[in-house]
C-alpha cells in the first residue's frame, strides 16, 4: 500500500473496541496513516456510520477519493447482534447510566417475548434516545440531557427487516436484528421492555453487517500495522 493508493481511495473495515468513540477510532487511524505514509495535512478520511462508545463491531472508514462513498454506505441496511435485560431500565437505554425502575418479570414467558418481538417487524415509529447525537436547536441531545435539561425527542419512521436467532436466558434476551438506516437499537430495547410491561435496556450491542460488508472481514488490530482493506 502506498500514499498514492490511499489518496486514490481505500475502504478499511474496523472492529471498533468497547468504550472507543467512532471519532477516536478514525482519528487514531488518520494519525497513524499520515505518519507512516507521509500524507498531506488535508488527507481525507471519515467513517460511514457512527457506533456508540458502548457498542462494538463494524466501523467502515473511507479515505482519499472513497470518502465520496460514505453517503451510499450510510444508507445501506445494518445488522446487529443485540442483548437486552428485562425487568429494569436506564435513562440512557444502555449501560452508560445506572439501573432504575426494577420490576418483577417472573410472569414473562418465552411466548410473551416472541409475541412482543414480532410486533416490531416492518415499518415502525421510533423515538431516538435522549442520550443521542441528534441535534436539537444546534446542540447535541446528549449534552442537553447530561446538563439535566428536559429533551423532547420526535418520533421517526424506521424499518426492522428481521429479528432472528433469539436466545432467552431471563433476565437476558439476545437476538440478531436487521434494520434500516437511522434505527436506534437502544430505543428498540427500551420499546420491547415497554411492550412486555416490565422495562428493558440494552446491555450489549455489536454491529455485524453494513450492506455487503461483514464483521468477519474487519480487523481490530488497526492500532498496529495490520490494516485489512477493501478496494471496492
Automatic annotation (TrEMBL):
Q: Where is the active site?
A: 52 (nucleophile)
Q: Which NCBIfam families does the record cross-reference, listed alphabetically?
A: TruB
Which positions fall inside the tRNA pseudouridylate synthase B C-terminal domain? 186-221
- Give the family this protein belongs to, as stated in its UniProt record: Belongs to the pseudouridine synthase TruB family. Type 1 subfamily.
What is the protein named? tRNA pseudouridine synthase B
Note the CDD domains from the entry. Answer: PseudoU_synth_EcTruB
Reading the lineage from the top rank, the first entry is Bacteria
Concerning Pfam families, the annotation shows:
TruB_C_2, TruB_N
* Reaction equation(s) it catalyzes: uridine(55) in tRNA = pseudouridine(55) in tRNA
Q: What EC numbers are recorded for this enzyme?
A: 5.4.99.25
In what residue span(s) does the Pseudouridine synthase II N-terminal domain sit? 42-185
**Keywords, sorted A to Z:** Isomerase, tRNA processing
Q: What does this protein do?
A: Responsible for synthesis of pseudouridine from uracil-55 in the psi GC loop of transfer RNAs.
**InterPro entries associated with the record:** PsdUridine_synth_cat_dom_sf (IPR020103), PsdUridine_synth_N (IPR002501), tRNA_psdUridine_synth_TruB (IPR014780), TruB_C (IPR032819)
- EC class of the enzyme, as a word: isomerase
Amino acid at each position: 500500500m502506498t500514499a498514492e493508493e490511499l489518496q486514490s481511495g481505500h475502504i478499511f473495515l474496523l472492529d471498533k473496541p468497547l468504550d472507543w468513540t467512532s471519532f477516536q477510532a478514525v482519528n487514531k487511524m488518520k494519525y497513524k496513516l499520515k505518519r507512516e505514509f507521509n500524507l498531506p495535512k488535508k488527507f481525507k478520511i471519515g467513517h460511514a456510520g457512527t457506533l456508540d462508545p458502548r457498542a462494538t463491531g463494524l466501523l467502515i472508514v473511507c479515505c482519499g477519493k472513497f470518502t465520496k462513498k460514505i453517503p451510499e454506505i450510510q444508507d445501506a441496511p445494518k445488522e446487529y447482534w443485540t442483548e437486552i435485560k428485562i425487568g429494569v431500565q436506564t435513562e440512557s437505554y444502555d449501560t452508560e447510566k445506572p439501573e432504575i425502575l426494577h420490576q418483577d418479570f417472573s410472569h414473562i414467558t418465552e411466548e410473551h417475548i416472541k409475541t412482543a418481538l414480532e410486533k416490531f417487524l416492518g415499518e415502525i415509529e421510533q423515538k431516538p434516545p435522549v442520550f443521542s447525537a441528534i441535534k436539537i436547536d444546534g446542540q447535541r441531545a446528549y449534552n442537553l440531557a447530561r446538563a439535566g435539561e428536559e429533551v423532547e425527542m420526535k418520533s421517526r419512521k424506521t424499518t426492522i427487516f428481521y429479528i432472528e436467532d433469539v436466545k432467552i436466558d431471563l433476565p437476558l434476551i439476545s437476538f440478531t436484528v436487521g434494520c434500516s438506516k437511522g434505527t436506534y437499537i437502544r430505543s428498540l430495547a427500551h420499546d420491547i421492555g415497554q411492550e412486555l410491561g416490565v422495562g428493558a435496556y440494552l446491555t450489549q450491542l455489536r454491529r455485524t453487517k453494513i450492506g455487503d460488508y461483514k464483521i468477519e472481514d474487519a480487523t481490530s488490530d488497526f492500532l498496529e500495522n495490520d490494516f485489512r482493506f477493501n478496494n471496492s
